[in-house]
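Can't paste images in this forum, so I'm doing it all in text. The chain is below; anyone willing to post the predicted structure tokens underneath?
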Amino acid sequence: MNKNSWFISIGTDVYPKLLSEIYNPPKKLFYKGKLEILNKPCVAVVGTRSHTEYGEFLTQKIISELAVLDIAIVSGLAKGIDTIAHEAALENDLPTIAVLGSGINNIYPKCNNNLAEKIEEKGLILSEYEGETEPIDFQFPQRNRIISGLSIAIIVIEAPTRSGALITAKLALDQNREIFTIPGDIDRETSIGPLHLIQYCGAYPVSSGQEIVEILQKQPHLFAKPKPKTWGIVAQAPKEKITINFNLAPNESKIFQMLSKNRAQTLEQIQKKTALLPEKILASLSMLEIQNLIKISPKGYLRNA
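Text version of the structure:
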């Protein structure tokens, strides 16, 4: 792995605004990879190291469904759910951010060295610890405040009552972040944490990434980009409409571009204009509808935006 690293400092334009607003933000962030990923809205995915097949399946499913959004997936590069989350993000062409509890040049656990190299190439690795700093127990709860602090929302997959994932969720609650969690079998230890988050912390119980997308769509302010810093007194600019950016597949983009806000198009008309097979059109229309980009009228399909 490349030993060269750089850092950004709090108070500079490149430092993440959301992170700068938390209690005790890191003064420096050492990094490797693509720093521009910090400009994207981030969603954290965390969970237990001792995950079940159920947890692995849901992590992969939810992240694949979140891939319709132009976001980055944040996690802690730990064994278990963190590893699955990073891998699922890469598999779905979503940028991913790994936040370390050790030095930027000391990947922990060592078994994730290859994964870290892939993340460095396509995503971003962050740490408030420089060089070869050893992983010490207290540094991991400290790391968790960065995971939640970077993110507009956090998803807890599986977590026993004493786990780093629950620490991250409680930090997210203090930071006024949205919390989502996956209900599980009540007799399973890793289901107790999510149950407590639902009962006592106002977490949204969800079963799919689509549900998370629908909830986040109702809060577009979460996706607002930080305003550039200005000096002195300036005239107030007109209020900008905040939009949520989506990752559209080629067929979805092709269909969306040909639709109108005022003139409905039937399935037959769409097929004639796009030369796509009906089943591909219907699949693309379903994804566009999930993203709330189109609506169905009695006369056919219309754009929402």
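The first strand starts at residue 6 and ends at 9. The chain has two domains: 29-222, 250-303.
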